[in-house]
Each structure stands twice: as C-alpha cells, then as structure tokens.
Amino acid sequence: MSSLLANNKDIVVPGEELAKGMDYLPSTGTYRQGEFILSSQLGLVATDGRFIKVIPLSGRYIPKPGDLVIGEIIGMTFGGWIVDIGCAYQANLSMRDVPEYVEKGAKLEQFYDFGEIVVAKVVNVTRSKSIDLSTKGPGLRKISGGKIISISPSKVPRVIGKNGSMISMIKEKTNSRVIVGQNGKVWIKGEDPADEVFVTKLVLKIEKESHKEGLTDSIKTLLEKTIAKPASNTLAVTDDTPEKTSGQNMPPVEKTPSSDAVEKTPFPEKTPPAYAAKISRTKEARK
Fold it and tell me: 10 Å Cβ neighbour count for 67?
C-alpha cells in the first residue's frame, strides 16, 4: 500500500524517505530505491499529484530552455554579446536573436553596451553547457533604472507564487514594476526610492520565510497595514483656528498696527498767504 512519509514543505535531508509504494513517482531532487522514494538533496518537499520533488534550499542556478533570466552584458563577439546570468557558464546572445535589426559591420555597443541589463529567455542549452539567449518576445528587452537584487534561485517559485499570485499582489499594491528571473535576479522599479526599498524588504522576507505556512496571508497583511499608514513625509492638515475659551487664561496678543492706524499727515485746509499772493500775480500777468 502506497503512502506519503513526508508532508508538503517539510525540510528533508539527502537519503530521507519521502514516500512508499509505486503510486508515487520521483521528480527533481528525488530518486527511487526499491519501493521507496528518497531525497537526493537538502530542501523542501513539494508534491504535485503523484509526483514528489525536493526544492533545494540553496545552490547555483542551472539554466533550462524556457527560463526567463536577467543578465548583464559583459562582452562582445563578432556575432553577438556575452551575458552573465549568474551560473557557472556564460550565455550568448546572438544578433539573430534580438528584435533590433543589426547591419553587418555595425557597432554592437550601439544596441547593447557593456554593463547594460537585459531580460532574456533561454532558448537552448547544449551538452557542452553552451547557453543561447533571445530577447525576442513579449517582455524581453533591455531595462534601465530601478534596482536589482539577488535571491537564491531555489526560492524564485515562492517569490512568484502559484500562478504568479504573490508577485502580482506585490506589484498591484505598491504600483511597482517587478521582474523575477529564474536565475535569482529580481529587478524592481517603483514610483520613488521608498517604494523600491519596501518591495526589496518584501522579496527578501519571502526568501527568508519561504518554508513557512501562511506566508501569502502574512505578506498581504503587511501590505495592507503599510499602505493604510499615511506617508511619513506628508504633513497632516490641521485647523489653526484657536478654540473658544473663557479668555481669562489666554496670553495677551500683541496687536499689529493696521493701515488705518498709521498716522497720516493732513492736507492744509487753506492755502498759505504767500502762495495766494503768488497765484494772484500770475493771474494778473496772464490777463
């Protein structure tokens, strides 16, 4: 009779028995020995129907065709670019696998220069570990701005969530743009640096607590509490009108002289005699 000997998300060590019987099938990180399925690495148990696998807690990225990766341009060849995707082998991005039209003899740095970051897709991995990339396709492009953080590649599925639920929730609640590469590189671009710092803390929290139950609810609660708080740099609008009191304890208010209180020099009511005589002589001369 078949039975599971380890629960989902249990931490197991190499050689630990996970299931008994032929109704279960080994997958990534597991192997069969007789009627038992055993773990081949340290990690978390994950069951998918009849399949049992172990997600490693740590380790380097191993590229597979179809993976979305974030890499840095570190070199150029006659036919394309060399990209660092954080694994033991460098990846190649051919001129034929970019959306831009590159003429023969054109300067490659005009399209992808040293140090620039690209979001690409792994299209082929040969036996000799030659990795071919492509930037043709939706969402594949050169990116700029924001920040890039690194997490364990084994924790990427937890950060993304089931059907993208976790990362979609983070992007929606924070109005940030986030791209998670299978190679453990995460690009974050928010409306301001504070948003990027907050999303970074969330991603690192998920990586650290990926083995815990109810992590999605915990992140959702944290998002709601943080968003509900007023921004620290926003001044609250207050009413400066003083409250009505009896007037006995009110401090004396210094009065500021208004324009009506300013002493004005009165105009003379009558014309002085000297000016009157001068005006009289002027009138007689005009006659």
Answer: 21
- The Cβ of residue 182 has, within 10 Å, a number of other Cβ atoms equal to 21
Quote the distance between the C-alpha of residue 227 and its chain's center: 15
HSE of 266, CA atoms in CB hemisphere, 13 A: 3
Which long-range contacts (C-beta less than 8 Å, at least 24 apart) are formed by 27-30?
27/51, 27/52, 27/53, 28/53, 28/54, 28/55, 29/53, 29/54, 29/55, 29/56, 30/54
> Rounded to an integer, what distance in angstroms lies between the CA atom of residue 114 and that of residue 103?
19
| Integer Cα distance of 145 and 110 in angstroms | 18
* CB count in 10 Å sphere of residue 103: 7
User: Tokens 């990116």 correspond to what residue?
Assistant: 143
How many Å is the Cα radius of gyration of the chain? 37
What's the pLDDT score for residue 238? 31
Residue 254's CB is within 10 A of a number of other CB atoms, namely: 5
pLDDT computed for residue 247 by the predictor: 39
Which one-letter amino acid corresponds to residue 99?
P
Weakly modelled stretches of the chain, pLDDT under 70: 228-287
Using a cut of 0.85, tell me whether the model's pTM lies above it. Answer: no
Query: What phi and psi, each to the nearest 5 degrees, are found at residue 149?
Result: -120, 160
Q: What is the pLDDT of residue 151?
A: 94
The total of other beta-carbon atoms located within 10 Å of residue 258's CB is: 7
Full set of structural domains in the chain with CATH: 3-56 (2.40.50.100), 58-144 (2.40.50.140), 146-228 (3.30.1370.10)
How far, CA to CA in Å, does 255 sit from each of 237, 258, 261? 27, 9, 11
Burial class (CB in 10 A: 0-12, 13-18, 19+), 262: exposed
